[in-house]
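Structure record:
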Amino acid sequence: MRIIVIGSAAGGGFPQWNCRCPTCRLAWAGDPRVSARTQSSLAVSADGRSWILVNASPDLRQQILATPALHPRDGSRHSPIRAVVLTNGDVDHVAGLLTLRERQSFALHASPSLHAMLDADPVFAVLDRGLVTRHAMELGRPSAVEGLSVTPFAVPGKVPLFLESGEVALGTETDMTVGLDIRAGDRRAVHVPGCAAVTPALLDRIRGADLLLFDGTTYTDDEMPRLGLSEKTAARMGHVAMGGPGGSLAALAGAEVGAKVYLHINNTNPALVEGSAERGAVEAAGWRVAHDGMEFAL
C-alpha cells in the first residue's frame, strides 16, 4: 500500500490567505522554518496505478498538479483517481468534489448521512450520477475499494459548521465524523483527520496499526481565542488539541501503533515551525508532523 499526503493542513491551508497569526507571518516572510501546506487529503493505492482520494479538499487541482501519480496517462481523457472516500462533511473535505466535475468516472464512498448531506445541496448535482457512482459505507463494515479494504468507524465529533443551528452536540459519535481503517493484505493504516476526544473505543480501534494519521489541528485547546482569532476552542470546533492533560500527545502516548503522524494542522499551530518547543515536544513523543508530498509505503 502506498500513501501520499497530498494535503496536510486544516481548513484554510497554511498560510491562510487572510491570516497574520505568528506562524502565518513566518510563512508570508519566507522563513525557512515553515513550509506552505494545502488542505487535508490523502491519495492511497494498492498497486500504484489506481488511486483513491481520502477527502477532496478545495485545493485538489493544485494537489493533483503537484502529484505525478495522479496525472492523466492514457488517451485524450483519463485519471488514475478511481474513487473518493469522505470522512466528514466539512468544506475542507468536500469542496474538491466540484473540481472533479468534468465528466470523469469515479466512485464516491461516504456514510449514508454524508451522502444525504451532499444530495441536499444542488451544487453537487454537477457530479453526473451516470459517471460518479454513489456507495454507502456502513460503520464497522469493510468496503472493497480499488484493491483496498476500507472500514469507517465513528469518532467523537460534530456536524459541519454550515449545518450548526442552536445548541451544537459536541463529541457525539455518529456517521457524520468517521475514521478509516485502510488495509492491503496484512498492512494497515488508520486515518483520523478530525476527532474531538481520544476514547477507549478509539484506542481499541487503532491498536496494531502500522501507521496512524491523526488530527493535529491545534497545539493547545485555547489557541484560537488566545490569539484573538476566534472565540472557539479546539474542543468547540470538534478537535482534540495536541498538548495539555487531555491532549492527544498524552492520550496516545501508550498507543500500540507503528508510525504516528499528525495532519490536518491549523495555520495557528506552532508545531508547524521547525525547531519550536512545540515541534520538539511532538517529535520527542515519537510523532511526525505531516507535510505535503510525504509518502509512506506499507
